[in-house]
UniProtKB/TrEMBL annotation:
Keyword Glycoprotein: no
A Pfam family matched in the record: Fer4_22
Keyword tags: Iron, Iron-sulfur, Metal-binding
Species the sequence originates in: Methylomusa anaerophila
Gene name for this UniProt entry: asrA
InterPro entries: 4Fe4S_Fe-S-bd (IPR017896), 4Fe4S_Fe_S_CS (IPR017900), Sulphite_reductase_A (IPR014259)
Higher taxonomy: Bacteria, Bacillati, Bacillota, Negativicutes, Selenomonadales
Protein name as catalogued: Anaerobic sulfite reductase subunit A
Length: 333
């Protein structure tokens, strides 16, 4: 990998060249936009300069909303015709930590290699390139080391901002730069977390009726925040929106949904598959750590810890898995 040391001015010129070919999306601090009074939110936004990028904090939401908008119009319709919205042709450079790069691999499995390709996802995914954001130390609640997502080689570029200087590592000649001082540069990755996970190698049938799930009926409020901040959740609902001036014209949208909220499993006749939060928690955990692995060979969760960060009831996914593993070991004795 080629490395360069740039001044702020040189990096500014480099970003200007990048912007001519790419839309740059990175975590940004949104002042006063947090969940509570006088708190900030770190979310993905389009940026123009390296100074806008937040390197020190973990983003509260993942880059999933760049590839899969929270609300996405699939097509417009009238009585006689339908029309897909125009999509841009400009490539996208995403600034991601290692776990989030692994998360996009999980999204690819669901939307591109799960029996059929999703054309809307594919149209955006083909334009995506990765710029790695380093993790030199673990954030609270992260367990990426346990999930083997703390390191990656799947990136085109890596940036390290240090005061007045910026280190740039180029892993793809498409991003070659002519300015800056050539240096030896290797990205840094976190090697340990405060939170450790013991993921069961297999889940026996008795797990479905295990008492470990029952506490979540009392603790979980069903707000769905864990799913909405998760970089690998893929569920959505469909909505047809009819315009007021013509009841036969409108648009079809897909909107993020969650298996943890009321109504997700509702069916005709008023039936619902999973009414209790215990059942919903069991389904979510089994999907992340069992069903997905059976299909694709590895776990869906990447250990970013956002679900633990956001939960208003202080429910820990890592704690749940460790309890589940302890139950399995006890049953096996």
């Amino acid at each position: 990998m080629d490395g360069y040391l740039m001044t702020a001015e040189q990096c500014g010129h480099y970003f200007e060249r990048l912007k001519s070919e790419y839309s740059l999306f990175a975590p940004v601090v949104l002042k006063g936009k947090g969940s509570f009074t006088d708190t900030d939110s770190v979310r993905y936004q389009e940026v123009s300069t390296v100074e806008e990028i937040e390197f020190r904090q973990k983003s509260h939401f993942s880059a999933r909303e760049v590839l899969l908008p929270i609300t996405q119009t699939l097509f417009y319709f009238t009585e006689d015709h339908w029309l897909e919205p125009k999509t841009g042709n400009k490539k996208i450079l995403l600034f991601l930590r290692s776990c989030d790069i692994h998360a996009i691999k999980r999204l690819d499995e669901i939307y591109l290699r799960n029996g059929s390709e999703d054309p809307y996802y594919k149209a955006v995914r083909e334009r995506i390139r990765f710029c790695l954001i380093e993790c030199t130390a673990s954030f609270p609640n992260c367990f990426c080391v346990s999930m083997n997502t703390n390191q990656t080689t799947d990136y085109d570029l890596v940036l390290r901002s240090e005061g007045e200087y910026v280190y740039v590592g180029v892993n793809n000649k498409e991003f070659g730069c002519s300015s800056g001082q050539p240096v030896t540069f290797e990205p840094q990755f976190v090697t340990c977390n405060e939170t450790a996970l013991s993921v069961p190698e297999s889940l026996p049938a008795s797990v479905a009726a295990a008492g470990v799930w029952q506490e979540y009926s009392a603790r979980c409020s069903g707000c769905g925040r864990c799913s909405f901040v998760c970089p690998t959740c893929t569920c959505f609902s469909m909505q047809d929106i009819f315009y007021k001036d013509n009841a036969n014209a409108g648009e079809r949208r897909r909107v993020w949904a969650s298996c943890m909220v009321d109504g997700f499993t509702d069916m005709a006749g008023g039936h619902s598959c999973r009414k209790s939060q215990a059942d919903r928690m069991r389904f979510r955990v089994m999907h992340k750590f069992h069903d997905y692995r059976k299909r694709f060979g590895y776990d869906m969760c990447v250990g970013c810890g956002r679900c633990d960060d956001i939960c208003p009831e202080y429910i820990s996914l890592a704690g749940c898995i460790n309890k589940l593993n302890a139950y399995i070991e006890e049953v096996g004795k």
